[in-house]
């Protein structure tokens, strides 16, 4: 196992009815900006519940943070924070609203042009506003991590940043808030969490038994509960377990002391920026092809994945790896998520366009060995056609 430092300051308040905890979690004298997506929190009654819990505190709302939150929209929130002397941010929504709030928290206190935060992967953030979140869509893990992904629409660039100053102070996870999700978003959440786990697990062995078994348990939970949530969307226990899987998949625990990949995400971000495909859907397009192309260097972990996660015992090692990749693809398809670019009416021209964007963004040495260069990304995308 590699050496590591582990730090996670986010308090989790989990369960039905937990939104009322906001009264304990938000400072009594705070002037709060509640940040929202399009209209879901208003329609579902979650915003009303939040406002009731905030009680007498002075609060304003900023709505309109879109899926794949844009720099352009978020800068409007930064202006509001400054004009109204807001001192606490509260994200109410999915990963996009929470990621957007992280950017606002950092940008409002940033000296200079805030897009530079993305260009420096967050290393230049030295202060950030305090904030919490009420999660309504289990998927990204943003509610308990220090990462955020922001899209600059004019530049067609979707870039991530990380900084310990943008961990939420707290996140409220009420599984009943997920009952209103459209099936498409439920499926997206399952697949996004699945790929967060594989990005930290399907690399090469470093004798990290705890992280491996933890990852395998989470993957099996998703394989079991993913189809179940589609059949029984009103089942609280399924929702609760999926919510906690998605959080633990990317709250740092799994990724301690092990190599990371993230090539699937970086290639996927370009597909979203260019063609507006949902984040999770881009991952389902890329991962099976990436595992096929990179299987020689991932061989030991792929065999472990085949055996421990999918219980594949027949055939040669090559057969087992092929079967594990097939099962992964079939799982995504069973969740209603296509795994080929053709399903999005994209062809060879899209491969060229994504490669050009990867080059423009310096994404030329991806993966746990930094060997996913542009030629290999091209092979992966071509296989995904
Ligand atoms: O905008 P509203 O009206 O609120 O509707 C949203 C949105 O249309 C809707 N929704 C959310 N909760 C709902 C609901 N509808 C009904 N009932 C509810 N309870 O769902 C739609 C999608 O929401 P969004 O927040 O965009 O989805 P998700 O949570 O999947 O977030 C995706 C974003 O997170 C980034 C992605 O790149 C993408 O930009 N990621 C962030 C990560 C991180 N911070 O660590 C890691 C991930 O890999 C990911 O990259
Ligand atoms: Zn993701």
Summarize the structure.
The protein is of the alpha/beta class and about 375 residues long. It is built from 15 helices and 8 strands.
Describe the structure.
This protein is of the alpha/beta class. The protein has 2 domains: 11-178, Rossmann fold (3-Layer(aba) Sandwich), CATH 3.40.50.1970; 183-383, Dehydroquinate synthase-like, alpha domain, CATH 1.20.1090.10. Helix content is 48%, strand content 11%. The chain is built from 15 helices and 8 strands. The strands form 2 sheets. Strands 1-8-5-4-2-3 form a 6-stranded parallel sheet, sandwiched between helices. It has a two-stranded antiparallel sheet with strand order 6-7. A hairpin with a 4-residue loop joins strand 6 (147-152) and strand 7. Helix 10 (263-275) crosses helix 11. The longest helix has 23 residues, at 209-231. It is globular and about 65 Å long. The mean pLDDT is 98. The structure holds 5,6-dihydroxy-NADP and zinc ion.
């Amino acid at each position: 196992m590699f050496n590591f430092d582990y730090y996670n300051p986010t308090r989790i308040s989990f369960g039905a009815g937990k939104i009322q905890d906001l009264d304990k979690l938000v400072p009594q004298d705070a002037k709060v900006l509640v940040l929202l997506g399009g209209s879901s929190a208003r329609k579902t009654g979650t915003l009303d519940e939040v406002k009731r819990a905030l009680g007498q505190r002075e609060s304003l709302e900023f709505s309109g943070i879109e899926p794949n939150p844009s720099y352009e929209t978020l800068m409007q929130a930064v202006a509001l924070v400054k004009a109204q002397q807001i001192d606490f941010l509260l994200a109410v929504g999915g990963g996009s609203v929470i990621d957007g709030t992280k950017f606002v928290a950092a940008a409002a206190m940033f000296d200079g042009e805030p897009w530079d935060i993305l260009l420096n992967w967050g290393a230049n953030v030295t202060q950030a506003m305090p904030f919490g979140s009420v999660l309504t869509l289990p998927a990204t893990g943003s509610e308990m991590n220090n990462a955020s992904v922001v899209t600059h629409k004019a530049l067609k660039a979707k870039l991530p940043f990380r900084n310990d100053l943008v961990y939420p102070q707290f996140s409220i996870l009420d599984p009943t808030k997920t009952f209103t999700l459209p099936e498409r978003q439920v499926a997206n959440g399952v697949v996004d969490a699945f790929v967060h786990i594989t990005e930290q697990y399907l690399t090469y062995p470093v004798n990290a038994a705890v992280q491996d078994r933890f990852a395998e348990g989470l993957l099996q939970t998703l394989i079991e509960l993913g189809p179940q949530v589609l059949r029984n969307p009103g089942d609280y226990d399924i929702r609760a377990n999926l919510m906690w899987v998605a959080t633990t998949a990317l709250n740092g625990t799994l990724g301690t002391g092990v190599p990371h990949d993230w090539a699937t995400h970086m290639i996927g971000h370009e597909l979203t920026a260019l063609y507006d495909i949902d984040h999770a859907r881009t991952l389902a397009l890329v991962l099976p092809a990436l595992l096929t192309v990179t299987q020689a260097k991932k061989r030991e972990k792929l065999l472990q994945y085949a055996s421990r996660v999918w219980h594949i015992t027949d055939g040669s090692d090559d057969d087992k790896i092929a079967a594990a990749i097939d099962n992964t693809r079939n799982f995504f398809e069973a969740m209603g998520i296509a795994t080929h670019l053709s399903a999005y009416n994209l062809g060879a021209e899209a491969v060229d366009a994504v490669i050009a964007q990867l080059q423009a963004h310096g994404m030329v040495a991806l993966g746990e060995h930094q060997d996913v260069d542009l030629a290999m990304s091209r092979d992966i995308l071509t296989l995904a056609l």
